[in-house]
Amino acid sequence: MTNVLLFIALSLAAYLGFVLLALGQARHWRAASEAAAPGRIGKLALRIAGGVSLSLALCLALFRDGPSFGALLWTTVISVAALVVALTLSWRPRLLRPLAALVCLLRPDGTQEKEGNNR
Amino acid sequence: MGSTFRESMAWLHTWAGVTLGALLFAIFWMGTLSVFDREIDRWMMPDTRLAASPTALSLDRLVDGVQTLVPADASRWQAALPTAREPLVQLRYADPDRQPVTRHLDPASGTVLPDQGTLAGTRFIFPFHYNLHLGWRQLGYWLVGLAAMAMLALLVSGVVIHRKIFADFFTFRWARKLPRSSLDLHNLTGVLGLPFHFVMTLSGLIIFFAIYFPNVIESVYREDVAAFAREAYGLFQREPAGQPGSLASLDAMAVAATRIWGGDPPYSVRVWHPGDANSTIEMRRTVARSVDMNVDTVHFDAASGAVLRTHTAPPVVHVQRFISGIHFIQFDHWPLRWLYFVLGLSGCVMIATGYIYWLETRRKRHAAQGLPGVRIVEGLTVGGVTGIIIATLAFFVSNRLLPLGAAFAGYERAALEVWVFYLVWLVTFAHAWARPGRAWRGQCWTIAALAVLAPVLNWATTGDHLIKTVLDGYWPVAGMDLLLLFGAAIAATTAWRLHRRGAMAAERTERHVLKAAD
Question: What is the ipTM of this complex?
């Protein structure tokens, strides 16, 4: 049971990681949300968050299966997760709207971030 | 060839892809199916759909059954022991004419199961993946090796010629025109699946290093090439004494081997020179529990049961077997098995969309200039993509239609199934070249029809219908039926869309003609 939960958790972490990376690209942000696309710092933050989520997936995979199975599991899961993200973005981008809204909420000024605001 | 590096890489990518794509698709398709080879075996060999035996198998009792089958003067016999995916004993030996024989035994009763007359997944689909069943001078291995080298070049050149790898990382503009959407899908499956495709292709070459680079072994083991097999894989033989000998308890030997391997059981037992005073027993350690496909072996003296020799892989072999293990996926890991299957399919999509992009970007120009290229390659694509899928389904369907023990024109049942596969595949190529433009649609409908027919025939001939197998939790057969139906749904949807698009295009031309007439 723990194994199943860990697998679901690491798959979700991989999926979320790529969604965050994709939202850091203006084209995909616009497909998912009507709010203004994040600026330079917002993009950077999204990419870092995406990287952290993918690393979390790696930690979960290594914890679940040990070094050799874990590394293999992570490499294959992230490939499939990235494909699913790409299909989500092209077929059902609106599914990502709540996540984009959450990202907007976490912005320092709550609405739109302009270049240089946080310098 | 082009003047810049990128242009010459584009030239390489295009030509290698167009010429070898159909072969690569066949290898990818059979490799993807091989992930579930044991499950395909259960589906194609109904008498082997056994429940996992509740009691541990007794090797000593098994020997009694084996001795009635194996000829008295046989130099060896080998039994692959039951596993979770293969709940039976697979016995291999040579008949009096020295022809190899494979028989299945029920581990619970020790009885021999009737010959299923099929090569099924492990003996047709899996070997097709690496040698195309072209045994002559190892031609098949070399063709697959050539395709694998080309695949590596295609992957690298594909990355070089991709203009916006990171900007287009997640981009799939599926609603755009065919050249755009097929190129997006080609890039997507190529880039996102790159780690898997690269590792699988490279490891595939490394598995057969002894075929592709035989001189490596010859140059190191100049005097004694057989020493390589002894040192790397623990090959060990004793000359037969010519005197009758006895056989100690195999079960006790299995217990001893399990203790040596820290709790891992043997997966195979081989008896060398059975009945001879110098007979030896070779037990090999299970490979189901780690990525690394170990070559751990224990040899016993048959009469006393004493350990003669233990073998474990030296470092370089260990690395080679780890890389092989990633490719062979003989370990028990269901999430990885499914991930391999999905990524294998993504490789098939990559090859097919590469072809479609090539065709759609040249169709008008070739038509205008009267070039035959598009027509030839389109036939190759249709036969290579939908054709091999139809041939595989025909292989499954013929398996359920031919009665056990069927023979025709001197061919036994197993060979007839293979004939059906190749003949149907040939017909799909002929159809693709004879009916350009309509072949995709027709072959998609054929896939849908065959993929529905196969589970229905499975139900009619074995009684194992989907509701029963799902309720019983018998997943090898239920999974196969479900995947067939899922594939049928995809093929039917595709065929329907192609049909509608064709109808819309016809209507447009008609309107144009009417307008022009006005």
Answer: 0.91
Comparing CA positions, the residue from B429, B446, B445 lying closest to residue B494 is B445
Residues 163-222 of B with CB under 8 A from A: 167, 169-174, 188-189, 192-193, 195-196, 199
Contact B314, B296 (CB under 8 A): no
Look at residue A63 and tell me if it is in a domain: yes
Residue A116 within any structural domain of the chain: no
A12, burial (CB in 10 Å: exposed 0-12, middle 13-18, buried 19+): middle
CA Rg value for chain B: 26
Kindly state the tokens that stand for B176. 């755009």
Determine, for residues B172 and A69 on separate chains, whether the beta-carbon distance falls below 8 Å.
no
Please tell me the pTM assigned to this model: 0.94
Separation of first and last alpha carbons in chain A? 48
CB B284 within 8 A of CB B234: no
How many independent structural domains does chain A possess?
1
Give the DSSP letter string of B188-242: HHHHHTHHHHHHHHHHHHHHTHHHH-HHHHHHHSSS-THHHHHHHH--------S
* Chain B residues near residue A75 by CB distance under 8 angstroms: 195-196, 199
**Confidence category of residue B98, pLDDT binned at 50, 70, 90:** confident
Put simply, the answer to whether B196 touches A79 (Cβ < 8 Å) is yes
pLDDT tens, residue by residue, B145-177: 999 999 999 999 999 999 888 888 999 998 888
Q: Domain range spanning residue A67?
A: 2-105
Q: Is residue A113 a part of any domain in this protein?
A: no
Which member of A22, A68, A86 has the closest CB to residue B291? A68
Contacts of residue B162, defined as CB under 8 A and 6 or more positions apart, other chains included, come to B168, B187, B190, B191
Which residues, in sequence order, are bridge partners of residue B101? B93
3-class SS letters over B302-349 = CCCCCEEEEECCCHHHHHHHHHHHHHHCCCCCHHHHHHHHHHHHHHHH
Residues 6+ apart with CB under 8 A from B433: B375, B376, B379, B383
Q: How far is CA A60 from the centre of its chain?
A: 16
CA distance B196 to B181: 23
Residue A20 inside a domain? The answer is: yes
